[in-house]
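Sanity check

After download, print the first record. It should look like this:
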Amino acid sequence: MRLVLACFLIAPLAACGGGDDTTTADAADVGFNKPSGTLKANSSNAEVGDADLTSCPTDAATTLAHTLMTTVKDFQNQTPVPGATVTVFKNNAVDTPFDTQMSNSDGNVSITIPTGTTRYGFKMIETVNQFPTLLLNQYVKPDAPATTTDPASIQSVSNSTAALLPALIGQTRTVGTGVVAGALRDCSGHEISNFVVTVSSTSMTSAPVAGAQAFYFSLSPELPVHHKQAEAAAANGLFMVIQLPAAPTAYVQAWGFPTAADLASGEMKLISELAVPVVADTVVTGSFEPIHN
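Expected structure tokens:
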């Protein structure tokens, strides 16, 4: 996953191809076909039961200021990223940060999260070696201590990563488009399988933006594969959507069949939606989870 994201971001002129060609007879296949099974929960790539879509806790705003001690790391090799400017903002308000800090020589950074925060996100910029990266939909648990290390690390994509992997899925990213990627987990923290994703222009409705193409990842190695090999998410819950035109707000949606009755009816249900900004030549990641209050 880490290698391929950088391939789309940094090597748009090199064909990211290998195996079957996705640009000819399969041009209409954009990764939004109906899954063949119901949504399942997985742990360590092994199925553990039905996906839990109902027990997610209600979001609660922070009642005190929290100090987050975290480390900026490279998305591919997990090494620290020094000198990264990290801005932190409520919800998706990327342009109105509540804190801005720079990671030290060990990649460490200290962020102040103010009282009254529910969801928040990060923007990471390091102009020498890293590509601009957003990490959205983070949450401070109500019982978190005043000084917390959750998340322990925040990850940005390296420019040099693209050189490590030539091509996999027969695509060439269009310059100026964005990428959305991540993993979908259920209310119990298990990765969900058998869902499909799109990026929609309209909330709560499937209205895929022009050009959006979704891909899902094999289990070993964790790399995106052709739609003929993976029409829906595997047990790792990993996905990415490419060729996204820049937009102030778009909606990353996951659809699937929660029950056998839904599968029999053939009517997919919207199970997850996250509003995100789509930024040109930038990767947007986030915490993707079932819809809840």
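If your output differs, re-run the checksum step. Summary of this record's structure: The CA atoms of residues 7 and 163 lie 8 Å apart.
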